[in-house]
Every structure is written in C-alpha cells, then in structure tokens.
Amino acid sequence: MSQGGCFAGGTLFSLACICIVMMLRKMQLLSADDLSMFSTGFSNSRALRVTPLIALVLLGCIGSPVLCQVQPAPTAQGAPTMPGAMRDPTHPEIQPRLDLDRDPIPSPEAEDNAPVITTSPLAPAAPGEIQKRQDGIYTMHKDVDEVLLTCAAVDEEGRSVPDLSRGDFRVWEDGAPQTTSSFLHQDDPVSLGILVDNSGSMHDKRAAVNAAALNLLKASNPKDAAFIVNFSDRAILDQGFTSDIVALNRGLSHFDSKNTTALYDAVAASADELANHAKQPKQVLLVITDGADNASRLDLEQTIRRVQNLGGPVVYSIGLLFETEKAEAGRARDALQRLSQETGGIAYFPNSLQDVDTIAAAVARDIRDQYTIGYHSSNPASLGGYRVVRVEAKAPKHGKVIVRTRRGYYAKKPESAPQHTRSALNSEQ
Length: 429
Fold this sequence. Notes:
Rossmann fold, 2 domains, globular
C-alpha cells in the first residue's frame, strides 16, 4: 500500500476514534484525565499505531457501563420490557388466564360461550336445608349428627310409589319415634359399584351379564359415577369412578377366571372404595354371582357390619343360581338375601340368563326413584352402638306401601374421627 493510502486510512481511523472519544465524554463515561491521556497519545509520532490501541483499551474499560447505560429500565411491575417479539430467556413467560375463552370461533352451544364460574354456585346452607343449584338440581345438606336414610317405596305389586310427601313417612329408632329434619325425592346422581363374579363357572354367563350391566349404566342418571370390580379369589378394581360408558365397558370385559369366590371381601372392599372416593351421598353396590362365598377372610356378619359401619351403600344382588349345586345355591341365596335386606336393597334370583337384562332395568328404575329422609337421633351419640331403624309410609290412595331401607347403623361417638379405611381393592388396568 502507498504511503498516501496509509495516511488517508490512518486519518479516517483517527477521526473515528476522536468521534468515539467525544461521544463517551458527552455521556460522562470518560474523565478529563482519560481525555488528556488520549490527546497526548494522539500527538505522538506513532499516533496511527497508538490510537487504535488507546480506543480499544478505553472501550474495554468502559464497555460494561455502556451496556448498563443502554439497558431499558424495568417497568413498574418489575418485569423487563422486550421490544417486539424479542423475549429474555432468563425470565418466565407470562401465561394467559385459563378462565377466559380465547377461542376465536364461538361454540354453537350458547352455554359453552358463557364465562367460566370459578366460585361455588351455592352459598353455605344450614343443616337439613334444601337448595337449588344453577344446574337445576336440588341438594340437601346434612350435619355430622344427622342420620340419612335412602328409602324405596313400593306398593303391594312392587311398583314404585312416586308421590309421597314428608308427612307420609314415620321413622323409629330402637322403637322410639323420631322427628324428620330433612326430606328429598328426586333423581339424584348416584355413586355406583358393579361387582361381577369372575370365577370359572361364570365364563359362559359373562357375555349376558356384561350386556345387562351395560344397559343398567345406560339407563341410569347420566351424572352417575360408577366403578367396576371383577372378583374371584381377590377383588380387582378394573375401572375406577367414571361416567364414561366406553371405559366402564372395558372394565366389564376383563376376565381372568379362577376357581374360588371371595364375595364378602369384594363387598367390604367396595364399600371402602365408596367411603373413600364417592362424591355423591347416594351409594349403591350391585353384586352379580353364581355361587356361594368360599374364599373370603371376612364372614357374612363381619361384612354386613363393615358396610353398616361405613354408613353403608344399598346393596342389590343378582344370584345366577339356576345351574348351581343345590346345597351351594341355598347358602348363596341366604347370604345375598341377608346382605341386600340389611342395607335396603333387593336380591334377585332369575331362572335363566334371559331374565338378567329385565332385572338390571328394574334395579336402574329403583335406584332413580328413591326418597332421602334425615333425622337427628333421640339417643345420645355418646352411647355409640348399633341402632335398629324402621321406616313406614301411609298413603291411602296407594293402599299398603312397603318401604325398604337399611335396617340399622352403628352410631359414631363425637370424639371419634371419621373412619376412612384404605381400600382393599387391587387395581389392574
């Protein structure tokens, strides 16, 4: 390169350095002493070589203050301001609220476009008070001392009596009349457990049983929540609580037959499942079996006590005993009748598989058309123990009315904590 070219290039570079130095001085990032040093170096005969070095040194010394100077000030909320679409990866993203519908295409259903309500639709209710929710369902609130009885009222021909009032019912506990504190009659959602015998003798019956159980679920309240238990030597929770018919059908389709039947253990474990996880106060178990228990750790009396002690579900049972050996069929019939009668349910004994679907439909109707009656016991809760309960109804225009409900309950002393037991059900999906 020629000397003139070098001189011109050096001059331009020197001017650039002077501009940088003056800018820094104006920003008050360069002291008077720094400026004096730069001027001395510039007047030296080696200015062309020194000037770049001085500029780089100055920029290195003051680079951090420059960066700090040009950073934007934080907002009032303390979050950094990002220009355009730029985002600082050291700061978390601001997430949109989940209770706002941001779908640009509105739903054809008007209720889908309504704002989400994040608070409870009901104000606190007094014990025994009936309130109407926003979905039109009436709910009854009970306190810890109130005894709630689920009752089915039928005429002498077994037909449901749907138009009884609170004044038509009478309640006794241990022979003493009780005053009802609450009353409700409507198709409330139910927490339902379906228990199906998985022993080897049920193999050829399962197709008809599963179809009948599925039809029962379809005929139930759409808001019911159900679970499926298949049992042989142990109880298997093949489908937990859900309202999904497809999922419940999958649970019913599981089959792994064994030669033993632990019916009592399955009922007790399912009652625990209801006590621990049911969201509805109305609770029902439906048991379908073709033989007597021969493998449970609990006996019949212990099972009934467990169910009653948990504030027990109503137990319906279907005994497919038409092909069972006579002695075993007798034992199974006695056990199923006792289990259902003690809890307010019904035991059915069809003559063939063709009758099972009709029985399942009758169970579905019975569950949906029940009364709920509450009362405060005149016996002190501190006494604890078992209380015998009896309910009657009088409605002259219906003739004799038969009321089914549980035959008793175990009173819990006030100081005892609620007995939520760990479920003994095994889960296999």
